[in-house]
């Protein structure tokens, strides 16, 4: 179960892999909208998937679009989120990250309840690629949170990609959604949205 961004009534963004793992070819995906507890799953919506063509098992291109085969019904738990503009993604600092990851350090046991964490993005002088947002924080996403959304002021800024444990603390990498806007718009236009 992965949280994701809903960017339209029939579109979502999603992370395609765990770091250092081969990409999985999905034959039959379903999306569960508005779910915050996996013990109470409603009927899922089938989707068509569009993985990023530049995926090379590296951070930054690990993104996929999902087209819902049935339009979403909007309500208090299912809403549409804005995509970023290329010029506003560097000025946002106070964000929310969500995921189903483990609450126990270095022990993967997925949560059955969707977890949320407020994070403040700090500028790091070094990041891996321009399409990766890096953040150094004593707390942040953990194992199993990959694919979770990074939301800043109701804007889909990033997707949890990886965590690195360094001597100076944790670094979390997020796929930078604004770097993929041309591709996102091209796929949505090509598929009549």
From TrEMBL:
MF terms in GO: serine-type endopeptidase activity
Residues spanning the membrane: none
InterPro entries, A to Z: Peptidase_S1_PA (IPR009003), Peptidase_S1_PA_chymotrypsin (IPR043504), Peptidase_S1A (IPR001314), Trypsin_dom (IPR001254), TRYPSIN_SER (IPR033116)
PROSITE patterns the record matches: TRYPSIN_DOM (PS50240), TRYPSIN_SER (PS00135)
Keywords, alphabetical: Disulfide bond
Taxon lineage: Eukaryota, Metazoa, Chordata, Craniata, Vertebrata
Name the UniProt record assigns to this protein: Granzyme G
GO annotation terms (biological process): proteolysis
A Pfam family it matches: Trypsin
């Amino acid at each position: 179960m992965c949280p994701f961004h809903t960017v339209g009534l029939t579109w979502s963004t999603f992370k395609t892999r765990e770091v250092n793992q081969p990409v999985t070819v999905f034959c039959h995906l379903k999306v569960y909208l508005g779910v915050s507890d996996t013990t109470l799953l409603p009927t899922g919506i089938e989707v068509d998937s569009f993985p990023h063509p530049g995926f090379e098992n590296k951070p930054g291109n690990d993104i996929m679009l999902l087209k819902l085969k049935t339009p979403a019904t909007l309500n208090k738990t299912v809403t549409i989120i804005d995509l970023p503009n290329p010029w506003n993604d560097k000025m946002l600092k106070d964000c929310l990250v969500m995921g189903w990851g483990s609450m126990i350090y270095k022990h993967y046991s997925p949560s059955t309840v969707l977890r949320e964490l407020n994070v403040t993005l700090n500028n790091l002088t070094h990041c891996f690629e321009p399409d990766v947002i890096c953040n150094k924080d004593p707390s942040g996403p953990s194992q199993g949170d990959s694919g979770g959304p990074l939301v800043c002021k109701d804007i889909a800024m990033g997707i949890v990609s990886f965590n690195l444990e360094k001597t100076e603390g944790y670094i979390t990498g997020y796929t930078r959604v604004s770097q993929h806007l041309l591709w996102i718009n091209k796929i949505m236009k090509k598929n009549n949205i």
